[in-house]
Known about the structure:
The complex is a heterotetramer, with 2 copies of chain A (about 270 residues) and 2 copies of chain C (about 130 residues).
Chain A: E1 7-9, H1 23-39, E2 43-48, E3 59-60, E4 63-66, E5 70-71, E6 86-87, H2 90-102, E7 108-110, H3 117-127, E8 137-142, H4 152-167, E9 175-179, H5 197-209, H6 211-214, H7 219-225, H8 234-241, E10 247-258, E11 261-270
Parallel strand pairs in A: 1-9, 2-8, 2-9, 4-7
Antiparallel strand pairs in A: 1-11, 4-8, 5-6, 10-11
Helix pairs in contact in A: 2-4, 4-8
Chain C: H1 18-33, H2 37-45, H3 47-51, H4 58-65, H5 69-74, H6 79-89, H7 93-101, H8 105-113, H9 125-130
Helix pairs in contact in C: 1-6, 7-8
The structure holds fe (iii) ion (2 copies).
Amino acid sequence: MMSHVPLLGLAVDHAKKEEEYFKPVFNAFDVSKKWIEDINPDAIILVYNDHASAFSLDLIPTFAIGCAAEFMPADEGFGRREVPIVPGYPELAWHIAQSTILDEFDITIVNKMDVDHGLTVPLSLMFGEPDEWPIPIIPLAVNVIQYPPPTGNRCLNLGKSIKRAVGSFPENKRVVIFGTGGMSHQLQGRRTGLINQEFDTNYLDKFGSAPEELAKIPHEDYLRLAGSEGIELVMWLVARGAMNERVREIHRHYHVPISNTAIGHLILENEI
Amino acid sequence: MMSHVPLLGLAVDHAKKEEEYFKPVFNAFDVSKKWIEDINPDAIILVYNDHASAFSLDLIPTFAIGCAAEFMPADEGFGRREVPIVPGYPELAWHIAQSTILDEFDITIVNKMDVDHGLTVPLSLMFGEPDEWPIPIIPLAVNVIQYPPPTGNRCLNLGKSIKRAVGSFPENKRVVIFGTGGMSHQLQGRRTGLINQEFDTNYLDKFGSAPEELAKIPHEDYLRLAGSEGIELVMWLVARGAMNERVREIHRHYHVPISNTAIGHLILENEI
Amino acid sequence: MAVSKTYLDIPGTFVFDAEHSRLGYPLNMFCMSLSKEENRSAFTEDCKSYMNRFEMTEAQKQSIRDRNWNMMLEQGGNIYYMLKLAGADGTPYEQVYAAMSGDEPSDYRSMMIGGGRLPEGNLYKSDWAKK
Amino acid sequence: MAVSKTYLDIPGTFVFDAEHSRLGYPLNMFCMSLSKEENRSAFTEDCKSYMNRFEMTEAQKQSIRDRNWNMMLEQGGNIYYMLKLAGADGTPYEQVYAAMSGDEPSDYRSMMIGGGRLPEGNLYKSDWAKK
Ligand SMILES: [Fe+3]
Ligand SMILES: [Fe+3]
């Protein structure tokens, strides 16, 4: 059994550290940086979405798990992002892949994949600008661009299956899982700029205590109430599912706006 | 509701029509050719596996559905197979993709894909050598090369979800589904050449009447009893799941060997 | 499972569903191609013949030539793909958002800093019809 | 779900699971590359430097040089990939099967025409140990 599956819900995309504007958010991460340094986990499962970098409309996996030994930062049109190569964890990633497929999740196994800002920005927020990332990463890409993404319920259940997988890994490892994306935002159309603080607050309130309730939110409600890109929040539920039923909140931060987005940030730990 | 979801279990791979050796098998397809001509369906869903042509170890989708308007025959090392371009059916394929994802199957949507002999050989067997394939095809690729493939139960349930999807398509269409692959065979190692006629006969006997029982067969039993490549039989269960609970057998043929493989061939129609 | 499209009454929003994705395929793949330097150069040098590499409709090409972001969306564009065109142009994303919203960039920025567009009055097409 | 590997006691069989796939990745990707004419030519012209494009172990390269199919399997080869090498060589698949089985091609063919290898005595490693 693993001793610990804490969760970290990150919600910053597209952030540029150098800008003054972002300072309050980066400051909020000081707590989180300290927290992960203390936890010092053996692996991070990073639930994120690819933004037309590794995948395109030619091939859209609903869930894809990165099993490679390393992942190159993607060239998103400005050359590769100047961050360290992302180290993988093939043994554990393959174990999760095999285990979740036998558990009837239809995951796509990926052995070669570039990872874009969706994965590397959360790392930068948590670890700053090191020469090497300090912890191996298992990328778990979720389709949230092509409608329909997986349902919230499916995401929560995948998380539960991942928890079982990590629990049955022959070695006892401390694993942290990041759920990224969201919170409410809309990047397109005449309604662009929609932010729903009430929706987000409710989500943050229930995330620890009543995830099954959040898992019932239909796609249409995300799209309507949290903005067309707010549907990324289903990715948080994968991370939540991987935790115990009972969790305690270690840290919470909510801020509007970063660019066009409400950003929320939550650290939970398992109650044992 | 759709009026009809017949199933065709095909099990010939790697066959070369010109060889005398294959004549008995091709003759057995005369019934099937006549049958499909009479049915004259609006679409064929073709459940098959890719043989390192469209996919590789770099990316292994458990289930992938082809939503493109057409699919090129793959170059498998001898130039593209000289068969017509495979026409797709984007409206229905996308409908199935959306519907099964909302139904919590984690399908990979594919909009560009070459199709190899796993898909085109069954077409040749059913339609001979036409200038154009007479019916649009929806390719459904299943991973059966990388262990673990989806469980038999998962395949059967995907079939049921496909049935619901076809049933909710706004237009009433006659759809045939081909399950391909199998039957018992082993292509590798010192045990190569294993054929298990008892296993195959039991499979054919229960396929119509007791698919839930077959869906419980664990992977290990396929590997041990039906040969390491016999596990391809799980693909038949997708097709079976897409049919009514009660079906009638229209045609059956079983022959050993084609090359290294026991070939079985079964046509079922829904009991209404 | 039947696919209901009740999301169609969300105002000012394009849900990137099957219909949109099929319509927008060539436009989005065009945008994505601009991630590569060599493609950006080819596009800059001769935008007409570069665009012809993709099987876009005349309306799609027009929307690109005009950098008319809402028209791209109507023609099946997906914002994540479209932002690659903005990136290639060096256009700040905020400018694209403001353009789609129909506001002046400074007004748009003020709205965002003030907490963004409120949900009230922005959830149903019928809300907007009243305006 | 725990991943049990009770299939390891099937005789004369390599299950292409995670361990095998990781081990065989460069060998299989090498084989797959031979689907392309240009790669086949490059391999034929200078097999050593062509093989060096893939990060194979010495044992993997040896198994390829020797066309030792069972050794390829031991080194993580997957038969569907390996058959691309046979295809590039123009070796009939039946010859590969016979070679792996350890039989003379004519004996192997007779066995297949006679109904194939029987399951009896071929289901457990312990069956083979008795022989
Ligand atoms: Fe995002
Ligand atoms: Fe096969």
